[in-house]
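Name: UTRO protein
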Amino acid sequence: EKAVNLKKDLAEMQEWMTQAEEEYLEKDFEYKSPEELENAVEEMKRAKEDVLQKEVRVKILKDNIKMLATKVPSSGQDLVTELNVVLENYQLLCNRIRGKCHTLEEVWSCWIELLQYLDLETAWLNNLEERVQMTGSLPDKFDVVNDALESLESVLRHPADNRTQIRELGQTLIDGGILDDIISEKLEAFNARYEELSHLAVSRQITLEQQLQTMRETDHMLQVLQESLGDLDRQLTSYLTDRIDAFQMPQEAQ
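Structure predicted for UTRO protein:
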């Protein structure tokens, strides 16, 4: 009777493993939204816990069958053979579920990381847009224009590492068919805004540089003119001091 019960327990265990495999490993998942992906991760975590909890039952079953095989070799040997098959299938199921759970957790981590990098770069784009707008109407003063240019250039020196991470993480998920529509839409919007603002910022940078160059040239011309007028003023003052008649002066002095 004990052998019959143990045989029944083995059959039930095998049936449970078959159902678990169908439910957790053979089902086709389509992760088209973050909610679906997150639910799949949580489901696989529960599946892993469920399978590992059966480890106690498997051990008890193993001990009982080996004990029976020791006491009644004729009845226990067949059960030992069946037990070995069940143990092998159980270990395989554990490994596969652990592997799938780990994979889904990695995918979810990849998605969260992508969102974090997008947030960082979006904040940078907002800052860049603000700096560009601030350069739109500046007073014609050298210090003001120079400060605006330096401020804009400091933002433009932002490293490209985050954008590289965004591209690689996004492509990895898209290649796996995971959240591909959502990610493609996010990347397209981000890249379009990045290109637009970058070109606008570089164009504004060139304009400010040209404005500064013009101001430098104008300032130099005014300085030269001021020096020339100073020389002329001193020369005319000396003529007046010496009471020289205008018609005795050079033509330009007259």
